Amino acid sequence: MGIRERLSGNEAVAYAIKQVNPDVMPAFPITPSTEIPQIVASYIANGEMDTEFIPVESEHSAMSATIGASAAGARALTATSSCGMALMWELLYVAASNRLPLALTLVNRALSGPININCDHSDSMGARDSGWIQVYAENNQEVYDNFIQAYRISEHKDVHLPIMICQDGFITSHALANIELLEDDKVKQFVGEYTPENFLLNSKEPMSLGPYAVSNYYMETKKAQTEAMKNAKKVILDVGKEFGEMSGRTYGFFEEYRLEDADYAVVIIGSAAGTTKDAIDQLRSQGKKVGLLKLRVFRPFPDKEIADALRNCKAIGIMDRSESFSGQAGPLTAEVTAALYRYKVDSNIVSYIYGLGGRDYRAEDALEVFSELEDVTVNGKEIEQFRYIGLRSR
Amino acid sequence: MAATDISKITEKSPWQDITEGNQIYGSGTSKAFITGEWRTNTPVFHPDKCTQCLLCTPVCPDSSIPVKDCKRQDFDYDHCKGCGICAKVCPFGAITMKEGQ
């Protein structure tokens, strides 16, 4: 079952795009996501897929053209990173409020400035309130699998929201890894044909899209969007389960790694989860009850599910790979903490910032985090909240 | 999708009744959407001074000066916003503006 390969994260997502063979892909190059449209363009040139590729003049145009294609009735997508996404900003909200089921394969990279091409989550975390579904990956296999599931979630009639498939710049996007691909016919069958009920190019049933909404309509529109986002929770679980039945790899909102009986847990997003698992294995072999919650779906935010998974932990370290300059927590910490409070989970919560602009996060860093969590709980040690991991300091 | 009956989507409609993404199905719905109430100044047509030169009709941004048998009719006040361009363009003083609706 499956096809064994070794691909980088960018190659993996490009291969998934080829298998899904969407109708339209407008894109503009930016490191580290450039390879995705580049590889797709090669597939098209070689006659391996028939997606209409549009080389546009900016990311603002890339997202605008993706929106236009989707509104016209096409299955559309684009790819970007960092400042490219920042230039799409205005249109991210338009795609979501127009309820267009389109996809963005984002390769997470630090936002300028200072200019930096390496991984952190400041680009997508900044866009967390734009109304997009956000799915993150730990490794190349997950990036591939997440993209295959993307349109099934986004195009579901109870959802109709754009979806962002995120992976860590360079760490997964450029590193080769073993991967199991699905057969073309299986992907085709799983994803299915796109048959929108309403679309602009349907001359038999004309329609208008994106009208002005005065104060009397704006809030009702937002409420409908937020309900669609809530509906996405069930759809994400259903699609993840069905994907598992086909591939043997089932997906939910998050992965719990040795978490069931853990006293000390780390909550993290993306590739750093793999490093943390390594530290957990080391500590478990010493008899320490430690575990991990690796968040896959940040939007919609699975608040109750996270609270239930962490309910019995004595201390929780929440790891943010982006700054929000609130002076008290990064976005992941803020939202997880809110969920724990709302669902009455009483635990020691320690906030960390790591990996900004591609700063290494090593197993030793994770070991230190777990050691601090134990120190807080057992010895009541006062520790610095919102600490930068791996920071040089005098 | 059946054409949207915009007369049923009003400022009193619950959020569940607003179409997804405010999409409007069917064509020509702007005709039924009465926007003339936005008007704060109103053009008044004086047929006795009008020469039917029809300079006013094409400059109207809201197509609110109907023409029938090559002759302009009175204003379509359901859609006229009172911008006054027609009054400005008329060489014969056949359109004057008055304050209010």
Report what the structure shows.
The complex is a heterodimer of chains A (394) and B (101). Chain A is α/β, with parallel strands linked by helices and 394 residues long. Chain A has two domains: 3-247, Rossmann fold (3-Layer(aba) Sandwich); 254-388, Rossmann fold (3-Layer(aba) Sandwich). Helix content of chain A is 42%, strand content 19%. Chain A contains twelve helices and 16 strands. Chain A has helices at 9-20, 35-45, 59-72, 82-97, 122-126, 140-154, 184-191, 215-247, 272-285, 303-310, 331-342, 363-379, and strands at 3-7, 24-27, 52-55, 77-80, 103-108, 133-136, 163-168, 177-181, 207-208, 254-257, 264-269, 290-295, 297-299, 315-320, 348-353, 387-388. The radius of gyration of chain A is 21 Å and the shape is globular. The N and C termini of chain A lie far apart (55 Å). Chain B has 101 residues and is mainly beta. Chain B has a domain at 45-101: Alpha-Beta Plaits. Chain B is built from two helices and five strands, in the order ββαββαβ. Chain B has helices at 56-59, 85-89; strands at residues 24-25, 41-45, 67-68, 71-72, 95-99. In chain B, the strands form two sheets. Chain B has a two-stranded antiparallel ribbon with strand order 2-5. The longest helix of chain B is centred in the last third of the chain and has 5 residues, at 85-89. Chain B is elongated. The mean pLDDT of chain B is 93. The A-B interface holds A 97-100, 160, 197-198, 205-211, 213, 216-217, 219-221, 223-224 and B 1, 3, 11, 13-16, 18, 20-27, 29.
Under CATH, the homologous superfamily of the largest domain in chain A reads Thiamin diphosphate (ThDP)-binding fold, Pyr/PP domains
The number of helical elements of chain B comes to 2
Poorly predicted regions of chain A: none
CATH first level of the largest domain in chain A? Alpha Beta
Shape of chain B: elongated
- According to CATH, the fold-level topology of the largest domain in chain A is Rossmann fold
Count of individual beta strands of chain B:
5
How is the CATH topology of the domain at 45-101 in chain B named?
Alpha-Beta Plaits
